[in-house]
Amino acid sequence: xxxxxxxxxxxxxxxxxxxxxxxxxxxxxxxxxxxxxxxxxxxxxxxxxxxxxxxxxxxxxxxxxxxxxxxxxxxxxxxxxxxxxxxxxxxxxxxxxxxxxxxxxxxxxxxxxxxxxxxxxxxxxxxxxxxxxxxxxxxxxxxxxxxxxxxxxxxxxxxxxxxxxxxxxxxxxxxxxxxxxxxxxxxxxxxxxxxxxxxxxxxxxxxxxxxxxxxxxxxxxxxxxxxxxxxxxxxxxxxxxxxxxxxxxxxxxxxxxxxxxxx
Length: 263
Hints:
Blueprint: H1 3-11, H2 22-27, H3 30-36, H4 43-59, H5 64-88, E1 99-103, E2 106-109, H6 110-134, H7 139-148, H8 154-164, H9 166-183, H10 193-221, H11 240-260
Antiparallel strand pairs: 1-2
Helix pairs in contact: 3-6, 4-6, 4-11, 5-6, 7-8, 9-10
């Protein structure tokens, strides 16, 4: 099987943003994310929030996770940050604006609400732009792209990937330990919870040591680190569509800032 046929086989069934190079999905929104840190208006972060949400809805699979993030997590985070910053704004900065709420000597003004809302929208827009790459990229593909395109040493990339994969492994082993405790008659209750969690520590630690030994033996068997580079079974190439995606993201970001003029 040639490299082209292998890449085509891996991309079969993928669509939208899933077929874009991971580095392109992070490089495209990056200038807008950096610029949004320095804006203070309401319009520009709101525009980027809407655009990023549309990109996610059109470029990813319509799953509960995506819908929950776009409809639940991001609006809730925006409201919490907006209210929090509105309460913490220095009253001298918003002096002269009309009052919305007064409790004793403390007053909530329109200026404080505007500052809080602007901050919440900025963070929401940056978070949604980051989700373009985060929700549509597999960790293994990102590591391969870093190694193949940015020439990150594979010793660092694949070692980090092996460490990241410990997390779901721990989750699986914790589920197995819980099931074993239930089979052996472990009872629930508020007071027994700390004892149960203390009982999980030793089996989890033993499982982590065993898994680390197996991973180390597998890496040694494959001569990991013996040579300056390695051949790749799965290629993550940079194609023309990746360049078009990055250029389009940068062009749209520049157009938004030119039209809105937040600076």
